[in-house]
Design a protein that fits this description.
The chain has 98 residues and is mainly α. α1 packs across α3 (37-50). The chain has one domain (1-70). The mean pLDDT is 85. It has helices at 6-18, 20-26, 37-50, 55-66, 78-95.
């Protein structure tokens, strides 16, 4: 299991700050501030997801969470970079004239 990407953590904190009274009231039985960071962020995520009315709202939320921060480019995983490299080389082979 890897670490949560920075942009996701940052946006979950923004969501918590913007909605603190509602979030705190939803989890009144838990001291959210005493939770370990991963558990706190899970509560924020779950609180927001529970309020989505449809799949489109959930998909938009997920896209917002994982989008690059302003001024940053999308990071490509090593696996994707390798797969794209293999596909490029295969395409180059088909263009090769014997």
């Amino acid at each position: 299991m890897g670490r949560t990407p920075y942009e996701v953590v940052l946006r979950l904190f923004i969501l918590a700050e913007d909605n603190w009274p509602r979030l705190d009231a939803a989890y009144y039985q838990v001291n959210l501030m005493a939770l370990p960071l991963d558990r706190f962020l899970n509560c924020v995520y779950a609180w927001y997801v529970e309020r989505q009315q449809d799949a489109k709202g959930f998909e938009e939320f997920e896209a917002w969470l994982t989008a690059p921060l302003p001024g940053e480019k999308r990071r490509v995983s090593e696996t994707v970079a390798e797969e794209e490299g293999v596909a490029f080389m295969a395409a180059m082979q088909t263009l090769k004239v014997n």
